[in-house]
Amino acid sequence: MLPLRDNIPRRTKPLMTGLIIAINVIIYINQARMGRPELYEFIYQFGLIPQDFVSQPLDNLFTPISSMFLHGGLGHLLGNMWMLALFGDNVEDRMGKLKFLVFYLLSGLAAGLIHLAFNRLSPVPTIGASGAVAGVMAAYVFLFPLAKVLTVIPIFIFPYLITLPALIFIGIWFLTQVYYGTMALAFGNSFGGIAWWAHIGGFVFGALLYRKFLKKELRYY
Fold this sequence. Notes:
The chain is mostly helical.
C-alpha cells in the first residue's frame, strides 16, 4: 500500500519536517557519489552496528543518531521521506518545530535500542530513518485516527485507489511489522534485511510518549 495524501490541513509551514528531509537527501546524494569501497567504509563508520556498539559503546556513541540519516538505496530513501512528508507536517503542527525534532530523534533512538536488544551480536550495519518515521506515524494515528488517507493498492499490474481511515492504514502497516518481526525471531533471519523490530520500537515509543511533546494547549484533549 502506498499513501498518496491525507485530508488534514496544516496550520503552519512544516519547516522542521522539510529540514529533516533535506538533510537526508543531501547525505544520500553524497553517498551516491562515492565509490563502492568508500561507501562501505562510510556506512560501517556511521551506521549502527549492534556488535560494535555492545562491545565498545563509547566509540560508537554517535552511531544511533548518524545511522538515521543514511539510506541503502533510492527506494529506501524515497519511501521513508514520502511517509515523513505525508504524516510529519501535521504532527509538527501539533508539537511545534523544536519538540517535533526532539520527538523524531528520540523515536529513532528508541528504534535503534530495540534493534540492539534483538540483534546484539549482529555485525551488519543498520541504517535508515524508518524507526524515527514510525514514531511520527504513531503520533499521527493517535492524533488523527479518522483522517482520510488516499491509498494506492496494487492488484497485479493495476493500481487501485481507495480512501482509508488513518487508523486502518497505519494499523495494517504496524501489524505487518509485528508479523514479519515475529517471523524473523522464529526463523532467525531478517526477512529481506529489514529491521522490523526497529520499526516496532519507534512506533511504540511514539504511541506511548507523543502527548509529552504536544503543545501545552493540546496536551489534554
